[in-house]
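Z., the sequence and structure:
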Amino acid sequence: MLVAFSIAPTTTDDPDASVAASVTEAVRIVRESGLPNETNAMFTNLEGEWDEVMGVIKQCVDAVAAVSSRVSLVVKADIRPGHEGQLTAKVERVESALRQR
């Protein structure tokens, strides 16, 4: 399963709290999960089994909710049982096709 997600507080309950700090904490959780992942300017991509991926996303929500009473979460999933390594394989297939043109 591949998941692309974006998470952020919509407000901060603490006027001294930083939006960037809570997003940084969510990225730390993802990276420490041990699951294949990558972060870009818009989303964090994560690969694994349903329960482990959703467990990491829940941990991220909990971390952001610690500084905000309202959390924005966008999730897009590619659920394809029996396929692993797709975080990089999908991109490699496109790059290969581009080189052949």
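Residues 2-99 form a domain with the Alpha-Beta Plaits fold (CATH 3.30.70.930). The mean pLDDT is 92.

Let me know what you think.
H.
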